Amino acid sequence: MKKILVDNNGGIFGVFNEVKQVANGYICDGASYQTIVTGAVTVEEVADDYTIPQPDVIEIIPPAKPTLEDLQKQIEELQKKVNIE
């Protein structure tokens, strides 16, 4: 079985083979996780093939480039606002 550190918000700090509690936090596979930094955490056992869940991929679509007509319309609207003809 492997182990994970989970914070109060459900955040997972990693999948570890060895977790040892020490005075100021945990030593996990040789790395220090101090509770002054991580906040309160719990240690949970998980299956050997456990992987940390990844968020869904969000595709970012760039805004469309304005057309010449769009730009001309913006110019006309600005001219009306400042009374330029």
Global morphology: elongated
Q: Any low-confidence stretches, pLDDT <50, length ≥5? A: none
Give Rg in angstroms: 27 Å
Helix content: 10-25%
> SSE order in H/E notation?
EEEEEHEH
Mean pLDDT: 89
Tell me the span between the first and last alpha carbons.
77 Å
Strand content: 25-35%
Q: How many strands?
A: 6
Largest sheet: 3 strands, antiparallel
Major sheet: arrangement of strands: 2-1-6
Q: Give the number of helices.
A: 2
* Helix and strand composition category: alpha+beta
Give a quick set of tags describing it.
about 20% helix; alpha+beta; elongated; about 80 residues; three-stranded antiparallel beta sheet; 2 helices
Describe it.
With 85 residues, the protein is α+β, with helices and mostly antiparallel strands. The chain has helices at residues 35-38, 68-82, and strands at residues 2-7, 12-16, 19-22, 25-28, 31-34, 41-46. The chain is elongated and about 75 Å long. The termini are far apart.
Task: Give a quick rundown of the structure.
The chain is α+β, with helices and mostly antiparallel strands.
Task: Give me the secondary-structure topology.
Blueprint: E1 2-7, E2 12-16, E3 19-22, E4 25-28, E5 31-34, H1 35-38, E6 41-46, H2 68-82
Antiparallel strand pairs: 1-2, 1-6, 3-4, 4-5
